[in-house]
Design a protein that fits this description.
By secondary structure, this protein is an alpha/beta fold. 37% of the residues lie in helices and 19% in strands. The chain is built from 10 helices and 9 strands. The chain has a 6-stranded parallel beta sheet with strand order 1-4-3-2-5-6, sandwiched between helices. Strands 7-8-9 form a 3-stranded antiparallel beta sheet. Strand 5, helix 7 and strand 6 form a beta-alpha-beta unit. The structure holds adenosine monophosphate (AMP). The site of adenosine monophosphate has 17 residues, from helix 2 and strand 5. The site of adenosine monophosphate (AMP) has 17 residues, from helix 2 and strand 5.
Amino acid sequence: MITLRSPRETQEQALRWKKEGAVALVPTMGALHEGHMQLVRRAKTLAPRVIVSVFVNPLQFGPNEDFHKYPRPFEADQKLCEQNGVDLLFAPSVEDLYPPGFNTQVTVGKLAQYLCGAYRPGHFDGVATVCLKLFQIAQPTISIFGEKDFQQVTILQRVTRDLNLPMAIHPEPTVRETDGVALSSRNRYLSTEERRWATRIPRALQIAKDWAGKEGARVGDVLDAATAELNASPLQIQYLTIASEDDLAPAGRDTRLSAIARPHLFVAAFAGTTRLIDNAALPGGTR
Ligand code: AMP
């Protein structure tokens, strides 16, 4: 495995590989876990060359968010990538990607206003900007993202279409612990107690799925059932929303599930100071 910091050298290598065949890119912020490795394994089935990027992107963090304390166990990340057959690990510094005078940003439209976007202003512009840069540098024919960040992958699919990028976005299902909690680099912030509270989240998703499958179910009923499960712990709900996968616009409480195209439940909640997100497709929709 090659490890490179330089965007230019990475781009040169990627362009050489692209002449021989497909290149898959897995963008990450490091602190790699099995969820990331699932993306790598998928990437290896989709292309003969796999590039992983590790970059904690300051553009996508708000002023009061965890940019500085975000875990950066680089040697462990490097080892995991090597063991999982990654061809190139691209690990630039902030200055490598944003040198003095950097002055251009991608602005995402409506899809970025809902859900996490409502609470993290500028977050998805930062994600779209860094991903567009990573796509230019790593020249992927396909890039793999986790559905754990469902709004992110939805937005990147739209960016790819809107800006005519000559590549595909592959969404990969969320990898979970045996108790259902989604793997996340931020889980390492959780105390034993907070980790226990987190199990309410996948349970709330399951309760919502059960309710949504009932004849005539309305959004309000499904949300109330899921809220009750979350509120049985000290978790603080930031949002709990049902939206169509097509436009991510929140559905009103009186709306019947059967009137929503591809209904999907989204949740963000704090366990202490750690923000956890999760989501699940719901039954009962029009498609
Ligand atoms: P991050 O390092 O958190 O920015 O995540 C990098 C990529 O890994 C994103 O596409 C995430 O959606 C994906 N990812 C993170 N956690 C999981 C998980 N538990 N299952 C599947 N993909 C994940």
